[in-house]
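Structure first, sequence second, as always.
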């Protein structure tokens, strides 16, 4: 028998074997843990949210309008409600309270199933694994832009109020309540013959991000009212008018715009020719009748003033000569 040299010697001699055994034990435990975890995950249902439910009201008259070019514009609108829910850890229900009116959620979006034969929209299959067997349902939602105005190629939502309005009911507890809001969308069909009997709306949970992430505003978002219907009832009801779907009302023609022009009557009247009055020429030569007594007197005074003025002017200019002349005349 070989001497191993005590505990330290035995440890050194057996260390490679003990290390290998330890590694094997660790790997076995890890495999067991992975197997157990995989079994738990496989056995656990997929988590989802209790998405808001549509409460669509019947279409109002005038919601289906025949345009001048023969196309038809359909405006669908309604309301949605997101009830308080704590169904189970699986459904992650909405915990709406006065302190957190939308819980931690962002809000509600929507997409419309137009049933348009010329623009089928996007095919999406929604499913739930929480029924046995699992249930799925395929819808054609939104528009692919057959007409440019049909631009609803993703989930629509109200960016200003994505979670609608909170209503306090104190049920199931003080301060609890629910959220409600409205939805609306317009679609243009090729003609009256293309109109379906009804259109349907799907509401979507926008998740937690603000603004919602690309997956949440994609029609591939599986957290919606169709999936919620599959989870609760095993199917999505397109026959319950006023909830998921709306029946179209009779189409009406778009009002025509009449442009009224007032005609002005312009009368053309021949202008009257105005002739100048005839001028009578005097006959014979003109005779001067004289100034009369007053006129002659005025002429005389005028002449005197002229002479006096001229004398004064000349006298002033030649006063020395005038003085000598006057002296000579009087003999001085």
């Amino acid at each position: 028998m070989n001497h191993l040299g005590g505990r330290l010697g035995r440890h050194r001699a057996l260390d490679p074997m003990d290390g290998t055994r330890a590694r094997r034990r660790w790997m076995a435990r890890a495999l067991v843990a992975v197997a157990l975890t995989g079994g738990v995950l496989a056995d656990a249902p997929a988590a989802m949210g209790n998405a808001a439910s549509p409460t669509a009201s019947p279409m109002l008259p005038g919601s289906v309008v025949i345009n001048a070019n023969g196309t038809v514009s359909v405006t669908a609108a309604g309301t949605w409600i997101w009830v308080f829910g704590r169904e189970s850890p699986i459904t992650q229900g909405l915990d709406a309270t006065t302190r957190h009116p939308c819980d931690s959620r962002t809000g509600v979006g929507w997409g419309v199933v137009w049933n348009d034969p010329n623009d089928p929209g996007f095919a999406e299959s929604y499913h739930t694994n929480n029924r046995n067997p699992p249930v799925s349902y395929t819808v054609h939602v939104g528009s692919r832009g057959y007409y440019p105005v049909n631009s609803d190629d993703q989930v629509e939502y109200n960016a200003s109020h994505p979670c609608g309005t909170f209503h306090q009911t104190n049920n199931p507890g003080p301060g609890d309540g629910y959220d409600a809001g409205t939805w609306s969308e317009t679609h243009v069909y090729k003609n009256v013959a293309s109109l379906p009997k009804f259109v349907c709306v799907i509401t979507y949970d926008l998740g937690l991000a603000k603004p919602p992430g690309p997956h949440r505003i994609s029609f591939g978002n599986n957290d919606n009212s169709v999936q919620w219907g599959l989870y609760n009832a095993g199917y999505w009801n397109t026959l319950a008018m006023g909830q998921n779907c709306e029946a179209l009302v009779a189409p009406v023609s778009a009002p025509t715009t009449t442009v009224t022009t007032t005609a002005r009557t312009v009368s053309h009247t021949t202008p009257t020719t105005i002739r100048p009055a005839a001028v009578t020429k005097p006959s014979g030569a003109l005779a001067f009748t004289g100034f009369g007594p007053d006129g002659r007197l005025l002429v005389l005074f005028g002449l005197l003033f002229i002479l006096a003025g001229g004398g004064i002017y000349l006298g002033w200019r030649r006063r020395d000569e005038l003085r000598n002349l006057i002296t000579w005349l009087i003999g001085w």
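Margin note: Residues 107 and 294 are 117 Å apart (CA to CA).
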